[in-house]
Amino acid sequence: MSLFADRELAWMIGGILVFLSIASLIAWVLKGRARTESAQATVANLVARIRAWWAMVFVFGIAIATGGYGSLVMFAIVSFLAMREFMTLLPTRRADHRAMVWTFFLFLPAQYLFVAIGWYGMFALLIPVYAYLLLPSVQVLAGDTEDFLARTSRLQWVLMICVFCVSHAPALQMLDIPGYEGQGAKLLLFLVVVTQISDVLQYTVGKLFGKRKAVPTVSPNKTVEGYLGGGGLAVLIGTALWWATPFAPWQAALLSLVIVLAGIAGGLVMSAVKRDRQVKDFGALIPGHGGVLDRIDSLCFSAPLFFHLTRFFFT
Amino acid sequence: MLLERIVSACLRGLCRLFTGAQPRWLCDPRSLAPRVYFANHCSHLDTVVVWSTLPETLRERTRPVAARDYWGHGTVRRFIAERVFDALLIDRKAAEGAEQVEQHRQQTLDAMTAVLDSERSLILYPEGTRGSGSAVQPFRAGLYHLARARPGVPLVPVYLGNLARILPKGAALPVPMQGQVVFGPELRIAIGEDKHMFLERCRQAVLELAGGRA
Q1: Average pLDDT, integer, range A242-251
Q2: Which residues contact A156 (CB under 8 A, 6 or more apart)?
Q3: How near does any CA of chain B get to the CA of A277, in Å?
Q4: Chain A contact for B177 (CB, 8 A cutoff)
Q5: How many CA atoms are closer than 13 Å to the CA of A86, on its beta-carbon side?
Q6: d(Cα A107, Cα A15) in Å, to the nearest integer?
Q7: B148 vs chain A: nearest CA distance in angstroms?
């Protein structure tokens, strides 16, 4: 599963680097052309975003290149950072403290441990069954019933999004697909590339051609043109990557469509959460992008769907 | 020395991991002159967070004021307080009788002014004890007496946000969350300023840094 042993993987990573280089070049040209203040601000944000992309690709590249465990550890850290951002925004009470400690120090490591040892049953049930029942039990023992249903629901939701959903991305590597053994890293890369390129292209097409606001009350920057153009292009790119996956081109197209649609839903849902909590971003860890959770909102939704569709039809 | 350095680096790393705390400076973070940092107190993390977010040059010359009844107990705690933080341990429990109380106050004050006179800074919590995190308690007089004793030393209000949720009173383990550390603009005591007005002014200075999120 090493980068050097698999030529297709090397091609994919090489493609990403070329793509990013072109993006950097375009940003560099735009930087010289921006005249108005708002244009300069947009370009400055673009430059920050692209720079952060280089850093993210670097980290993810190392994770992929070090084999299954590398990406597992990276996604565990991503889960940790995302949950740290999310917990910060929750209106929790003193009585929730112990249950919150459990989500970080018991359920998060356990979930990734089950991915690591390839125990599918516990991977799929730990959070929806065991955490689902244990966390409210821990909370109720603290004796505070004020706002109880909402408090316990919030905690469940955060754990599902930040740990359960995210862990499906590295878990792709534990799928046994006939004729595709030991090549799970490419499946993971396929998911991440289609999800993220869809975000990037929606943003780009929306900025260039966006006119009609798609969901003004939730996310005023999203446009119909961005969704259709960016999403459509992302499906094309996903389809064009079929050679690196166990899928036929038409299957890659359909799965890319699912990834794109799930990603759009994820972005909107997390935008609604941010509006609800009255913040613009989940954090400020990634310059130009916001927090970790702002970057992976679409992945939270696309990873579990892609995982289970692949598992159902191809294993 | 090596052990102190390792523990220091670990503490700062853990602090970063659990609180994500990045300091915001509204005064000059490079000024080496002695200062008194005073912060709201709501968690055992407070001292670690202020201490670890100070730039290294300032950290070396800053001594947190800590309660002997907590930080002086246990080998690990004591090691951290004395050898890593270089804390100034003081007795919170005042002695019996008016005369002894006065004597105790004078001793504490002398210990603190001695630190400032040796060109080093102090971190202290004028609330005296940890609050619930939801409000900043009225300040005790110690800050006033210290400011009167060394009126030339700038006082820096420090706001610590969210730390009570990360490690509340009575909890053994922290929940990782984003904390806030804001170092406010320097202030000084005015000539002849009333004790209560001064203390309330200092308290408001901390509250203002909260930016509506107390």
Answers
A1: 94
A2: A131, A132, A135
A3: 13
A4: yes
A5: 27
A6: 36
A7: 39
Distance CA A160, CA A163 (A): 6
- How far is it, in rounded angstroms, from Cα A294 to Cα B136? 33
ipTM: 0.86
> How far is the C-alpha of B185 from the C-alpha of A232, rounded, in Å?
52
> What is B2-7+26-209's CATH number?
3.40.1130.10
| Strand ranges of the sheet holding B62-67, from the earlier edge strand across to the other edge | B23-25, B180-183, B155-161, B36-39, B121-124, B62-67, B88-90
Separation CA A119–CA B214 (nearest Å): 45
Average of per-residue pLDDT across A99-109: 96
Farthest-apart Cα atoms in chain A, separation? 62
Q: How far apart are the CA of A15 and the nearest CA of chain B, in angstroms?
A: 34
Q: What is the pLDDT of residue A289?
A: 85
Residue B122, beta-bridge partner list: B36, B63
Whether A135 has its CB under 8 Å from any CB of chain B: the answer is no
Question: What b/e readout covers A266-293, taking b as 16+ CB neighbours within 10 angstroms?
Answer: bbbbbbebbeeeeeeebbebbeebbbbb
| Structure tokens that stand for B140 in this block | 């005790």
Domain-by-domain residue ranges, chain B?
A: 2-7+26-209
* Per-residue pLDDT band at A45 (split at 50, 70, 90): confident
CA-CA distances (angstroms) from residue A161 to A255, A300, B59?
A: 21, 6, 39
Q: Who's near B69: CB < 8 A, 6+ residues apart?
A: B91, B92, B93
Q: Give the pLDDT confidence score for residue A183 in this predicted structure.
A: 86
Q: Please tell me whether residue B112 adopts helix, strand or coil conformation.
A: helix
Tell me the backbone φ, ψ of residue B159, rounded to 5 degrees: -105, 130
Nearest to A97 among B20, B162, B171 (CB): B171
**CA A82, CA A166: separation in Å to the nearest integer?**
10
The overall average pLDDT reported for chain A is 92
pTM of the model: 0.91
For chain A, domain boundaries? 68-167
CA pair distance B9, B13, nearest whole angstrom? 6
